[in-house]
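Example protein was shown:

_____
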Amino acid sequence: MTPRHQRTLGRRKVLFALGGAAVALPAAALIAPHALADQAPRRGPGTAAASLPLTIVNNSGSFDNAGVHLYVVGNADGRQVRLTPEGNVVPIAASDNGPDGFTDYAISLSGSGETKLSLPHMSGRIYVSLGAKLKFKAVTDGNGDAALQYPAGWVTSDPNYGVLHDCAEFTYNSAGMFCNTTMVDMFSVPLSIRLTGSADQVTGTVREGGREAAFAAVREQEAFSRLVVDDTRIIAPGHGLDAGLFAGDYLAPYIDEVWSTYTGRDLKVTTNAGTFTGRVRGERFTFDGPAQVSFAKPSTRDVLFCDGALAAPNDGTTGPVAAVLGAGFNRSTLLSHPDQPTADASVFYRTELTNHYSKAVHTATEDGRAYGFAFDDVADFASYIQDTAPTGLRLTLTPF
């Protein structure tokens, strides 16, 4: 599978429209999952069926099926939509809001055992909430179209802040199924996805005791400790920074050292386009190679969100280099490894100033893969799987 940092990268830039901005600004309430359709490999006519069996399994051990609520929301044919229990894709409508001002798009699980659904072509998120329903609000965006405000578990004023919930992301279209479990925004409910078809693939499974260990590991890091919200969730440090829970200059010493080091030596970055060789010149990290690309010194926020100075356009050159730099900063491998990217996970997160949140969620999973930050697919360390001839998708709530 071609590493996705060497494909188009547009979804990374718009990913965070799902967050606090979606709560504060209805016009920004756009679904932007990690597995957007433009991430699918470009092919001829696809072979994927018009619908895919979707199975939901509640092995949480903490909530029975009656206490688990399911939501499948996203985009189809340029509109924001939701999935009904009957397997139909229905457009979002402002009239869906009830007397309390929120929709009730919850799909109930079967009384016992597995829950079987049918998933048509769409891109979106599969949310699960435990113990209480989520409050999605239908709004009108800046173009006058119906849109949906998504839960933002890192915003204390969000109506879903007190609800235990999480999600997986997917795109299903004629080219196949492309899906992942995401921890880019937060980690709360252990989820595993299994995709069958031309292969049988599983990712995202949290090892026994992994959730508790991740909470403890983040709590033990003084700079990260405020990101742990009771036993409900761990907020990703980028959102924590915006919420005043994480220092805005946390990574500044490491960033400064990278800039200083590569003023006098080369950093090589290899992508599908070829090898880029860079040095800091006049405060910009400038790379020569298949094309010349350059970057201003990023802030801690830029690194954590993989945005700003590290934004990745869909140009085949700047984007892939930005992705590798973003991964190198988050994994703190840029100083130790002047040839990037490195695929040796044993050297990741070894410095004191590193993304300890991402380290913790990777350590929590059985296969060592997780979406701890937006460029975590660099060198294939994201909890992402795909199949161009899928026969079924299985989402499992695994034990806490």
Remarks:
- Residues 370 and 383 are 4 Å apart (CA to CA).
- The chain has two domains: 4-204+383-397, 207-364.
- The longest helix spans residues 318-331.
